[in-house]
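Appendix C reproduces, verbatim, an entry submitted by the partner laboratory led by Prof. M.T., so that reviewers can inspect both the input and the predicted structure.
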Amino acid sequence: MKELLERLREAEKRANEADRAFDLDPENEEKEAAFDEAYKAEHKAFTTAAEELVKITAGKIDIKTARQMVQGKREQLEALFA
């Protein structure tokens, strides 16, 4: 789980950087494509982390709650799995 949260943090960082680059040059199709790919990777990392949380709790935490936890309680999750 720790590794998945680290991957998510890195994916978010890359997506934010790509978003900033695209904002600076919104007519640039390459920057738009780079942002789209970075966002897809971020979403996949987020979904994977939430699904793993459901899995390691044997379903005691449902996917909706897991997503909320990954989104809103990230620091606590990182501390728990440190």
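The mean pLDDT is 97. Additional entries are available on request from the coordinating office.
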